[in-house]
TrEMBL record:
Pfam families documented for this protein: Cystatin
Protein name, as recorded: Alpha-2-HS-glycoprotein
Domain Cystatin fetuin-A-type: 27-133, 144-255
Compartments, record wording: Secreted
UniProt keyword annotation of Protein biosynthesis present: no
CDD domains: CY (cd00042)
GO MF, one example: cysteine-type endopeptidase inhibitor activity
Organism: Hipposideros armiger (Great Himalayan leaf-nosed bat)
SUPFAM superfamilies in the record: Cystatin/monellin
GO cellular component: blood microparticle; extracellular matrix
Gene: AHSG
Length: 359
């Protein structure tokens, strides 16, 4: 009997040592409010804001899910789902996103929904892949908070286009310096009472003097880009209209050369400095400019277009993370290719806390 027990013990010890060392068992799930989880989420939000060319900066609102995988040969990969909220700072505004106010519900808030894979290696976080989309709050929910508040209007609405043209003309008419040209219409709302159109738009300085311009088509953006952001209300009046516009001009932004990944030859026509002088319907992905589809009657700049064409760095390196399909009638297990599979981990508290408000 003692011999049988000894054999069983030896068999168990052999089984334990048969698993290769350093190959973890599947993934682990952290608390969504864990400091390390939040650090990975904040890196993801910074990645969003550094890649946006249009619209407004975003801020972290909630962490929905997180899984942490061991990565060969070292490091960990955080698979993380986060919710963001649009701020009032335009992407051209140099104000740090942490200092930007969140757009409130009564102003028709916009929420982002993102999936990220973030690598932690040697204590540093870096984004491997990103997938986002965003959408404004529903009209019904806005009406519950503020029945009389205006909703977002399509950016190509005829009233919106006219209001932007009138506001830009009024700004240039009183400007003694450079002539500014339109970069994008960023936001618009049609106000019922008094009948008016509220718009927000981005502008850029040109090599023309505002007071001397006769043909804006001959004006070119300055080599060292200087952008501005304007807010305007065009109010309809009997026999005419009244335009009120205020613009904030930001410091110049010198164009800095971007290093290219080793082994990638990119045609000069495809190289971009990742600045908003790119065509309005183009999205910069690293050094490449990827044409975005025409979006008719949009009321905001969807985050899904910020990362078009972004490929996972992990897939390029030959590593991937998969969820194993369990046989019918059996509980699923989770694992990585070439890694021993263990039972699914204990689920920890998620989603995490809401930092602002839920849409």
């Amino acid at each position: 009997m003692k011999s049988l027990v000894l054999v069983l013990c030896l068999a168990q010890l052999w089984g334990c040592h048969s698993v290769p060392l350093g190959l973890g068992l599947g993934y682990k799930e952290l608390n969504c409010d864990d400091p390390e989880t939040e650090q990975a989420a904040l890196v993801a939000v910074d990645y969003i804001n550094s890649n946006l060319l249009q619209g407004y900066k975003h801020t972290l609102n909630q962490i929905d899910k997180v899984k942490v995988w061991s990565r060969r040969p070292m490091g960990e990969v955080f698979e993380i789902e986060i919710d963001t909220l649009e701020t009032v700072c335009h992407v051209l505004d140099p104000t740090p996103s942490a200092n930007c106010s969140v757009r409130q519900l009564r102003q028709h808030a916009v929420e982002g929904d993102c999936d990220f894979r973030v690598l932690k290696q040697n204590g540093q976080f870096s984004v491997l892949s990103a997938k986002c989309d965003s959408s404004p709050d529903s009209a019904e929910d806005v009406r519950k908070v503020c029945p009389s508040c205006p909703l977002l209007a399509p950016l190509n609405d005829t009233k919106v286009v006219h209001a932007v043209d009138a506001a830009l003309a009024a700004f240039n008419a009183r400007n003694n310096g450079s002539y500014f040209q339109l970069v994008e219409v960023s936001r618009a709302q049609l106000v019922p009472l008094p009948a008016s159109t509220y718009v927000e738009f981005a502008v850029a300085a040109t090599d023309c003097v505002a007071q001397d311009v006769t043909d804006p088509a001959v004006c070119n953006m300055l080599a060292e880009k200087q952008y501005g952001f304007c807010k305007s209300t065009l109010t309809e009046k009997l026999g005419g209209e009244d335009v009120a516009v205020t613009c904030t001009v930001f410091p110049t932004q010198p164009v800095l050369p971007q290093p290219q990944p080793d082994g990638i030859n990119i045609p000069s026509s495809m190289v971009s400095s990742a600045t908003p002088e790119s065509p309005p319907d183009a999205v910069v992905v690293g050094p490449l400019v990827v044409a975005a589809p025409q979006r008719v009657h949009q009321a905001h700049y969807d985050l899904r277009h910020a990362f078009m064409g972004v490929a996972s760095v992990e897939s390029a390196s030959g590593e991937a993370f998969h969820v194993a399909k369990a046989p019918v009638g059996k509980a699923p297990t989770v694992g990585q290719p070439g890694v021993a599979v263990a039972a699914g981990p204990v689920v920890r508290p998620c989603p995490g806390r809401i930092r602002h408000f839920k849409i």
